[in-house]
Amino acid sequence: IEHNSYDLVLLDLALPGKNGLEILQLIRETEPALPVIMITAYGKVDNIVEAMRMGAQNFVQKPWDNEKLLADIRSSIGRYHAEEENLQLKRALRQRYSFSNIVGKSEAMLRIFDLVAQVAPSRSTVLIQGESGTGKELIAKALHANSGRRDKPFVPVNTGAMPTDLLESTLFGHVKGAFTSAISGKKGLFEVANGGTLFLDEIGTMGMETQAKILRVLQDRRFMQLGGTQEIQVDVRIIAATNVDLKQAVREGKFREDLYYRLNVIAIDLPPLRSRREDIPLLAAHFLKHYAQENSLSDRTLAPDALRALVDYDWPGNVRELENVIERGVVLSSGPVIGSDLLPGHLTGRNYSTSLLEHNPNASLFDILEDIERRIIVEKLERSNWNQTEAAEQFRIPLSTLNQKIKRLNIEIKKRVKE
């Protein structure tokens, strides 16, 4: 697979001398989108579940029906070719832009890549919204790197980490004698970033007085230093980021409405990691390579149980938390394979092996697998707020195929909760 191109892999779970899951993991590391159909006879339910969660398109039970197997193969190859054509078009666009260290193949991230490519060349203010650890500063850097300002400074500042007086001095600078400890004048970050980009992180915690001064810079492109009497003109693009709901902050009187609309010219909403689980193996591989190199170690990979634990976990700290977990695993590892024993104790895999067996110990393998498939689909629908189109995109299958599965498995569709 490393040296040749294939349209599909038929993979037996039970191979002489090697576990089919290990082969599947190698395939996923080399060709993440390549369709894989698993073959099983008396395989453990946990192994089949793991194969499905690692991206196997389907499973076939021995002895199989040749016509059904051929139909599954044709369908999988057809979808693969269509998806590859679509991805090639998107890659051709993204190759013109720099997205260093931003990893993702999910539809949500592909849309963000395309949006960044579209808006980066403009002078418009951008508001990046997302939970802590989702990569807001990386997106801001990508916007700067793909703009005409790329050769000028990119200046980040965490506005939520400073008291108001210090923040204003940091942003606008001060003249000598502006306050007791101002024994000399100092440029502010607006001046330092002149011609480039100023990234205002955690802007939702900024005080109202400072908000008014930021608004004036956005409107007039000029400001005065603390204690100064002369206006300074600057050409700075502002990119702001927040992990709070600014609309709600406006309603509560904690954030200026006029500043909100000035900042929200273009909004980029970063999804939490739990809503793009298909990106977790890619991100894990990226961090494994990075921290192995940083620590002068040989390449590291994740054992299937460790990868399952990562995919199943909800990641309240998002990509930053995943990066920390991978770094820890690499540092503690004594060999090339990192097992679940090297992961923090709170990272436990979800158990799918299954209530059907508890209620019916004589259930057939087919019934068990149907029960597993039903629960995985329901879980995905719940995570997508019962949006079938979004769930189909996350499964990388046509909406019609998902609807057929929903009908066949008698899944009751619930009403979507208004967002």
Highest CATH level, the class of the largest domain: Alpha Beta
Strand order of the largest sheet: 7-10-13-6-14
CATH architecture of the largest domain: 3-Layer(aba) Sandwich
Q: Looking at this structure, what is the CATH superfamily of the largest domain?
A: P-loop containing nucleotide triphosphate hydrolases
Structural class by secondary-structure content: alpha/beta
Name some characteristics of this structure.
419 residues; alpha/beta; Rossmann fold; Helicase, Ruva Protein, domain 3; 4 domains; five-stranded parallel β-sheet; three-stranded parallel β-sheet; elongated
How does this structure look, described?
A hairpin with a 2-residue loop joins β2 (14-15) and β3. The chain starts with 8 loop residues before the first strand and ends in an 11-residue tail after the last helix. The longest helix is centred in the N-terminal third of the chain and has 29 residues, at 66-94. It is of the alpha/beta class. Strands 7-10-13-6-14 form a five-stranded parallel β-sheet. Strands 1-4-5 form a three-stranded parallel β-sheet, with helices on both faces. A two-stranded antiparallel ribbon has the order 2-3. The protein folds into four domains: 9-93, Rossmann fold (3-Layer(aba) Sandwich), CATH 3.40.50.2300; 107-269, Rossmann fold, CATH 3.40.50; 273-342, Helicase, Ruva Protein, domain 3 (Orthogonal Bundle), CATH 1.10.8; 355-408, Homeodomain-like (Arc Repressor Mutant, subunit A), CATH 1.10.10.60. The protein has helices at residues 20-30, 45-53, 66-94, 107-119, 136-145, 164-172, 189-192, 208-220, 246-251, 257-263, 280-294, 304-312, 318-332, 355-359, 365-383, 388-395, 399-408; strands at residues 9-12, 14-15, 18-19, 36-40, 58-61, 126-129, 154-158, 173-174, 186-187, 197-201, 222-224, 231-233, 237-242, 266-269, 301-302, 337-338. The chain is elongated. The relative contact order is 0.10.
